[in-house]
Amino acid sequence: MAPGDPILGLTEKYLADPRSNKVNLGVGVYSDDQGRLPVLKAVQQVEQALVRDQSPRGYLPIDGLPAYTAATQKLLFGAGSAVLEAGRAATVQTIGGSGALRVGADMLKQVLGDKATLAISNPSWGNHHAVFRTAGFKLIDYRYYDAPTRGLDFAGMLEDLGKLEPGTVVLLHACCHNPTGVDLDATQWAQVVALLKERNLLPFVDMAYQGFDKGIDADATAVRLLADSGIENFVVANSYSKSFSLYGERVGALSFVGADRDEAARLRSKIKQTIRANYSSPAAHGAKLVAGVLGSPELRTLWEQELREMRERIHAMRAGFVDKLAALGAPDFGFINQQAGMFSYSGLSKEQVDRLREEHAIYALSSGRICVAALTTGNLDYVARAVAEVCR
Ligand code: LMR
Description:
The protein is of the alpha/beta class. It folds into two domains: 8-39 and 303-391, Aspartate Aminotransferase, domain 1; 61-295, Aspartate Aminotransferase, domain 2, CATH 3.40.640.10. 44% of the residues lie in helices and 15% in strands. It is built from 14 helices and 13 strands. It has helices at 8-16, 41-53, 66-77, 82-85, 96-112, 126-134, 154-162, 186-198, 221-228, 261-276, 285-294, 297-327, 350-360, 380-391; strands spanning 23-24, 89-95, 117-122, 138-143, 145-146, 151-152, 169-173, 202-207, 234-239, 251-257, 343-345, 362-363, 369-371. A seven-stranded mixed β-sheet has the order 2-10-9-8-7-3-4. It has a two-stranded parallel sheet with strand order 1-12. Helix 5 packs parallel to helix 6 and helix 7 (154-162) runs parallel beside helix 8 (186-198). The chain starts with 7 loop residues before the first helix and ends with a helix. The structure holds (2S)-2-hydroxybutanedioic acid.
């Protein structure tokens, strides 16, 4: 019997829990203030048009829907980006962000062979380890989270990255670090990018939450700095699960940047070979939804507005949670307001997390990670009281 997944396995337990007051702060899924998964209005409009048109259901190309990958490139690198103008990026549609990571890992493993090594932040999303290990990578941690300050161990991060062998693949969270919610600022990113270049490391950026902290462009700072850095090769995996609320449609993409147009063409051919031998070609529906929204100026504006509402609601829930905990006399949770994105590394111990689940039907990861995007004005008080109680 394989062990249950620490995140998706917890959702299985949550779904089987008969208690009506249960709250799932485990998996990274955004709820609206009514506790429902939103269906974005911009997405609904494209979907209605698709239903009306009833177009044939042929296979997509191996590398996906061209309108989807083109729109993705603009979102990642910015319209008018020099990387795009030079044709240096090969972008393919993938089965979600995890699929992008796995296709990228498989392709790199083929090229790097026994040398394939991934440096990964400590801590990181559990599936990062699983994906790269299964693809045959050796994993090394670099320092990232500083528990005493609940912030970033930036000096430790630089020191560890500075010691890596040239050619090591370095996994970076573009924004809304999962699981800690602790991000680099633009100045720190510039320093990291300079170091990656100097040490000849291969950046592999995971951007699953673009638009969930500050906005589309600000959240892509790491990608934009890499694009302008003169680093010849880097990789970006991205996902629309959260930003379009399209979790189950598995909409992701993988972009390999090469030195020039020729190298990008070779990279694309290798990625296509990897995909063909895995799942042949991606699914069409979710990609049509995203491409439809991003391809229409009107719907794109509507989507950006809906995305802004999502991030503002998360910010409001963070602030509300901190205030309620303070009013209840709990230890200081003010750091939750400094963290970005869906998650907070709450500092709760495994025992406290167990008590939350057993005594209050509140589900969180055993690492103490909570999904603040699942807090609502309806459950905030209940969750804060329970957290204050297990902290007593
Ligand atoms: C999470 O970290 O909860 C999300 O990214 C969902 C997942 O697949 O783990």
